[in-house]
Amino acid sequence: MSEPSTQREFHDFTIRAVRATTVSVPLVAPLRHAAGAHWGRFVRTLVEVETADGLVGLGELGGGGESAAAAVRDLESYLVGHSPFDLEALRFKICNPTASLYNNRTQLHAAVEFACLDLIGLRIGVPVHDLLGGRVRDRVEFASYLFYRYADPATGSGEVRTVDQLVAHALELRARHGFRSHKLKGGVFEPGYEVECYRALAAALPGDTFRYDPNCALSLRQSMRVIDAIADVDNDYLEDPTWGMGGMRALRGKGPLLATNTLVVNFEQLAANVLAPAVDVILLDTTFWGGIRACVKAAGICETFQLPVAVHSSGELGIQLASMLHLGAVVPGLTFAADAHYHHLTDDVIAGGKLPYTDGAIEVPCGPGLGVRLDHDKVAEYAERYREEGGYPYDRDPGRPGWYPLVPNTDWADPTDETGVSW
């Protein structure tokens, strides 16, 4: 009996090689957050999965530097001979739930899954969103992502520390990109000062909506005071004000909707939140959840239980941004603008340069696969930059040597400090 034509067609469609390249892409200025800082650049690991017939699928994950690249390369023995179509088998091959007690590979799996979906789309000539059920929107709206920032050490520009600097920065981003929702990354300065900044944003941008994310840095009491202080702002939601399901459950219903990207990042946690609600909005991150498909599955559960969702950003170059766009394209209940760090980047590693914002949104790629390809000259440039600069500790602040945060935090940065950073 002859082999079916479809089997013959895909006979050579198996993985033969996996490559990983760590790059360092500059930011406009160093970004400060509750646990430390992005030190003027994003360090990301690019993943290329090549099939026996010569197609190359793209993935991406953050942090880790050479250790992340080595971890990806170590997966090659798991992947050689595996069909990119066999995505459920891939999930258990890499993220077996008992084996993962010893070696959590969730983010590695996400990068490989991006690449496999890219390969499938390239092989059959359709965009990833068609593999996920088809798009229900052609563009995904984004919120501005406002950070307190150190001045760029090379130019001395880009600082965001004062109320006036923050408002000016938000107005400039709105004018340039068209954002109508604005997210303030907090947990850096004392909560009362950050509330002052947040309220100033709302006053300067009437008609827009706002969200505040102190990355779990606040105590329960401080969180309650923040809720009272921003009650009259047009809030999208309050994101992760305090740590733990118990803390969030105590706050729920007292003010704005509560959102999380820390407490609900897998299906067990999602089930726990359905049974005993602690948060209202689930922020789906294609890396934290282990891939685009996991986020689509989670969105379906959220739809069933009427939990709103939004697309979360854990810091991205163009490959992961594409994964976020395809996710945003297929989720019917996406009623909030997505997050993205993307506008803080000065450049990208994808062909054609950075994807543009138009009226606060980015068009969903419609080419085969993820719809983006690598600019290999840019990859070489930023790989060399990584070799020269190395990585940086995400959970340390270059302007506060020896500091590290408690949860909840009790040691805030000083917004009047104009001394700058010794790099």
TrEMBL record:
Which top-level enzyme class is recorded in the Swiss-Prot or TrEMBL entry?
A: lyase
Q: Which residues form the signal peptide?
A: none
Supply the EC number(s): 4.2.1.40
Which reaction(s) are listed as its catalytic activity? D-glucarate = 5-dehydro-4-deoxy-D-glucarate + H2O
Q: Which InterPro entries match?
A: DgoD-like, Enolase-like_C_sf, Enolase-like_N, Enolase_C-like, Mandelate_racemase_C, Mandelate_racemase_N_dom
Q: State any single GO MF term.
A: glucarate dehydratase activity
* Record-annotated Mandelate racemase/muconate lactonizing enzyme C-terminal domain positions: 163-258
Biological pathway: Carbohydrate acid metabolism; D-glucarate degradation; 2,5-dioxopentanoate from D-glucarate: step 1/2
Q: Which domain of life is it from?
A: Bacteria
Q: What is this protein called?
A: glucarate dehydratase
